[in-house]
Fold these 3 entries.
Entry 1:
Amino acid sequence: MFDIKEELKKLPDSPGCYLHKDEFGNIIYVGKAVNLKNRVRQYFQSPKNQTPKTREMVKHIAEFEYIAAGSEMEALILECNLIKRYRPKYNILLRDDKTYPYVKVTLKEEWPRVVKTRRLENDGSKYFGPFADAGSVNVIIDLLNSLYSLKRCNARSFPVGHTPCLNYHIHQCRGICTGTVDKEEYMESVDKAVAFLSGRDNSLKKELKEEMERASAEMRFEDAAKLRDHLTAIESLSERQRVVLSHPEDLDVLLVVSGLAGAHVLLFTVRGGKLSGRESFFLGDTAGETEGYLVAEFIKRYYSESLTVPKEILLAQMPPEKELLEQWLSGMRGSSVSFLVPMRGEKRALMDVVRKDAEVMLRDIDERARRQQEKDESLRKQLVRVFGEELGGRLNRVESYDISHIQGVDSVGAMVVFEDGRPNKKAYRRFKIRTIEGNDDTASLTEVLFRRFKKAKEGDPGFAQLPDAVFMDGGAGQVNAAKDVLFALGLNVPVAGMVKDNKHRTRALLYEGVEYPLTAVRGSGKDGLDPVRGGSTGDAAKGGSAAGDEAPEALGGMRELFAYCGRLQEEVHRFAIEYHRSLRGKAVKRSVLDNVPGIGEKRKLSLLNTFGSVDGIKAASKEDLAKAPGMNARVAEQVFAYFAGAASTGK
């Protein structure tokens, strides 16, 4: 038993990181301290001066551990790494309100490509963006690939006898796979593409405009229209950049704004003196926290994962630990980094520009937050109508399960988790069915549920957190199967069934033997609905109301609950099918050649390319087998002997 009072006495008077855990052993908060003993003790003293978020967190602390560090800088770096690894519930975590695309030039590949990505990686590639106009990004990438005939596929090598794809034949790719492309000439084209993406696009615009006018004069109107679209895309990407500084400086501007849903940090990037990027990050519930604290937390979270650190960061308010953060960022950049709160001059004017942009962005963010709050509140009320005030009001974590197979082959189970009405993909789990053969979904679900909740009883950290309710994909049969498992394990978890119509859509929610219709019933009642008593007459066997039970008035118009169940069903179907397909794909890739000693993936492909099929390999002589690329006499003997032995046994 972890005794917090006793463990507090053991804390050292040194820098380090502390990790708070809940009753399930999950890490819910990571912090750093100059003095671990003093800092951790503060959480368990009078809550009067604590923020609401901290008071709520302390209620859930069941134990803590600490990691000592040699200095405050080491503790800061360790804190960033631990938060990135565990993503604790009560730490400030960055969530992009929108992920904008980047253009990526894969310079570390032998034959670099120009591609779109929404993910920045430290892989030696060159990134341009982010760009708000995803459509223009697609056109620009298509333009560069077409104009310079760059490599489009992601293949790194090509087997002997490889046939070029359609792009080569329609002159949209030089055909790296043919082995006839001049490397120096190709890299010159890549350099031109990089120059264009870097903003040096005047020569290309002039060239395209002249070509468009020439095509129009020659009445090649389709070609002229395509060139016009290319020019429009270039202008679209150029217009987003505004000159805001007289000198070509690189810097970031950070601004904290508070909206309906909580605090946001708005990040504006200035590159070469131009305002080139705007992103917003949601910090969650930050009631009681100062702007300086929020800025410091954002700096630690964001720049620990960023590929670039600018020389200067403009702020509205200095963060605590200013010198430590500047020292840390300087080490990452390799040169001096400084914070500045501008009071006059063009950088103050830049802050004013940013504030005006922030007002517009915040209005848009708030409008989306307002609509989401309305939906969340409506969903909560509808859950209360079905589950009652006590359960419906606190229904946060919901789990759902599904089975996927083809005629009982490669059966798998899937578990998805929704928290606060949204998917928590880190909590998803998948299962291979072990004990059930054939097409028996109910029995397979029973196995999955038993394994999931047995692991919870055993204290498995990956399954320790129990749901507030289980939503089964089906009616009475599936609900009763889940209840039987939970009863056998001594667990009290409510179970509801999502009953489907003949179009496989959720039409009702089954709870405690009563069906609650989620879709409108045509009639003359209020809002076009008639009261429905006794459940659905056509679905008694699928989970309709038990005989003698009275269903409540039809709840048609429960759009949010209907949509919620629909999302839950679609997500669990998708996750189950995705897992089943991955297993089936692996099975399809398996070959009889995998059973031959000395034959790996490369030799298998070489033999299949050389002889066309397994039958061709069987018919080949030892001498011919040895001549295939990557083969030798010893391995050829093993292949020949394997198929000779299989033929003699009739396999």
Note: Residues 345-394 form the longest helix (50 residues).
Entry 2:
Amino acid sequence: MKSLPKHIEEAYGLFAKVVDEQLTKIEAKRLEDLVTGDVEIRKLYVEYMHTHSCIHWEQTNAVAPSIKDLVDATEEGSNQRVSWNSEKRISVGSAVSAFNWKDVFRLLVGSFAVLAVGAWMGSRWELTPELPVSGSTGGLRNVVAVLTQTVGCRWQGSRLPTLSGSQLEPGNLRLTGGLATITFRSGAEIVLEGPAEIDLITPMRCFLRSGKLVAKVPPEAKGFTVVTEHADLIDQGTEFGVSVSPSGALGMSVIDGLVEVRHQRSGVLKQIRDGESSVISEAGVATDGVVLFEGWGTEVMPDLRRDDTQTVTVSTAFGRGRDAYIQSGNPEKYLEAERHNSESLLLVKNSLDEDWTRKAYLGFDLSPLSDYHVVEAVLNLTIESSGFGYASLVPDATFGVYGLTEETLDEWLESELDWDSAPSNLPGGAEVDLNRTVRIGEFIVIQGELAGSCEVSGRQLIDFLNEDTNQLATFIIVRETLESKVGSIVHAFAGKDHLTSAAPTLRMTVEPIVPK
């Protein structure tokens, strides 16, 4: 039989000494060097401990030690040989086996010095270590966070791994669509909403360049900071949301607790409490009652310079903007069925049942662009789960986007919009009046996709916006794909009243209109 490489054979010998409580301090240091410096040995260690745990559970009813037990044992680990001889009779091996296996993996790989080496080295575990941003590129010493969950994610040009469960060193991530949950080693957790760009810096610090995130910060991660172009947002153990538009406009809302905002240019420090919001620019911090988490697209428009190309973002929550959906059939029937309605989602469906077809209407206030010409434009929608119907009954679904050209119909009201009064609506799930609308484009939602984002761009959208004369733009969203059976999924997009997701948004590059 082919013999094992010497370093692997040595590692297995040290593994056995761990579970037999025979590891000396010198051997513990050697094992630490092997595990932190060699990916293959690190994997073997995890597999070995897992196997030992499974066997151990078949033979004992050991009680799992608390974190305090582990820390106390670490402080007492100055003896030449390490042993856990408490009243609970828990050894190093049984301590590992008593944990949930996913926790074991995360703790071993993400904080190896705590469980595998900490007790042997006599060092104290710090829950929120400030890891170096640069320096060592090997082992685990530079890991600042873990990509704990991804939903419908699409990534662009990142050197960091983007598979769920990946360990993340300091670096840049660009999320073009979907939701990504990142858990920092400090305990802080952020949910990044695409499109977004973020720099991971330390376990206590990140830089949001653009896009949206919701941060949840437990007490042990107090002081976790989200850096932006204009301000540092210093969390005091709470939950808050941040939105940075491509133009640099910054808004934040405290959902629960307290956040300190330190303005970059002035150095002024303001406290924002739960239920309060703030709009932040280069000039300062405004806290004049803007409630962002009732409509994440709520924005203060930037002052446009008259001599340069600008990027401007408006949502259905800005100014005279609005959004709503309409539903076919008997109004009394579906109004009574409250579970089939939503106040924060825009529901869209092409149904075989005449009572359940839905279309969405979006209204945008274009008044800030009266002296500008649009050269590029993107309409963005955030996909959400409606909870209604079965995704398996609809294949990849194509959605059509239409712009309302009959401007006398732009003044529709959300509270009064219905199937019969909606401008340019026609019977059927995908039909609109083509004499009063223009087709802007289409997008596809993959079967089963319940989160992420979708967008429409192109010459038709640019022309539609430039031909506007009343500073209001109405879009109609229809699902062109018909369900195969009654009871299919109702597709949903975040509206301006959604608590955490972005409202429908127009992102435009504009330039001043030059008089002829």
Note: The two ends are 87 Å apart (CA to CA).
Entry 3:
Amino acid sequence: MKRFIYILILFLFAGAAFAALEVESKMIGRQENVPCIFLRLTVRNPSSQKLGFDVTLKDSYTNSSILIRNQEISPLKEQVFNLAVPLMKSPLAEVVDSEGGKTFAASSWDFKIFLNICDISNFATEKQATDFSTIYYKTSANAVSQLEPDILPDNWLCYTPFLSVFIREDAYNSLEPPEKEAILQWVDAGGCLIVYGSDQNREVNRMLGTIRYQSASPLELNDLGKKIAWSPWLDQSKTRGSMKDFPYQVKKSAGKYGGFILTTAFLIMAGPLNYSFWKKRKRIRMILITLPVISISFCVIIILYFIASQGFAKKGGSVSVTILDENTDTGVTFSRNCLFSGLYPLGGFRFDRTTGFYPFIQTKDFSIDFTKFLHLKSGIFTPSVNFHYLTAMPFKTRERFVYDPEEKTITNGLEQNVEGLLWKEGGQILVARDIAPGQKKKLEPFPQNGSASAVPFSHESFSSEFLSESEAKFGASFLSNFISAPLKDNRVKYIARIKDNPPSIQTGIKISAKKNTAFLAGLE
């Protein structure tokens, strides 16, 4: 009997040692036509040994997949992944451990467009959340997620599905630096953060977004206060605008007609000519040899022709707006990109995981490696077709312009050449052109009737002075979309056009044409 008990104990221990990983998937934030969803994936290791594992997120309706490789988890431990998942609505998670065990976890399809962060003891009731959702989302379903502040994301993209985020002031003050930076980067990009439980009642502008301090939770009052709109870059992802107006798209595919001629020649030679030739010689079986030879030969010829006519060069360009706050040394760059390539880019597209990436086409099957960065290995992009997509990237910098009010001079403290600068000084508009890095230049009155006060300080004035007709057709509206609100609040100190794209632009792949229109707006 004792021997049987010992064997049973050993068997149970052995079973525990190789138990499959436990996985939980929870949808925290989701909204239609937003670049990312916020998915929280929790992996638990019930076994007594350290396990490696891979995570695969699979789309419910396509063959698309996102892979996170080479993860490890200690015995009896739990690992939480706060994921900003691009281009999927409700992924199915598959976890495969190093012992061959497989575990699956699905998440809900619920829309979640508000987030409340506080200790669980202060969570809003289900009724409060549902009543609030009924008012602001016109639905009886609960559109509010609630999280404790102990494990928040360190990637600002996780917050992009939310129209607004609410956080208790004590929780906000206790956030770790990476978590606080992520939420502030989201605010800078146009988010609205409401800090409640505060003895203050004020609103602070941060770049394109706001932080509002108030005493009561919006969920308790069923009141958001001021009307809240989507941030400008999310408006861009929701409403694409005209692709035809984009100044740097490739108008025509090189080698298009030559490829058609070669294909037609192949069909004629491999078919009727080949058949007639051997039939006359009564050696029809030779087709079994000549047809593969002709096919291989034409494949090589067509490949060489397309390489010669289209090459490996990536054509296209980008229009970007960089918003810079010199008081906090922070900035965020939004770019609209167009890429044309005759071949799928070797190595695919590579973005930092904190770069928002949104293609302006219907999502097709794709494969992304999400282990260290967002590596689009295949899919979405189609060779020989203009590929339009949007990116957003927050960054830190010490670069700035140095203004001397007595001399009315400006020193370029950027690493890029400045092609044109519109500077606001009191009631005057000043202008400078062609300022090299480190160069000091005299600012002159805006050239309209010799009077600097003849025109308002606006994106229209800037566009008319520094953009060509084709650039202004698209670039002026793109610039306006991001700086209209700061201009209205009188917070824009300058608007500049820089010659090269700033380092904060991530196009995912090098575009050799180097065509761009890059704007820089400084806030005060």
Note: The two ends are 82 Å apart (CA to CA).
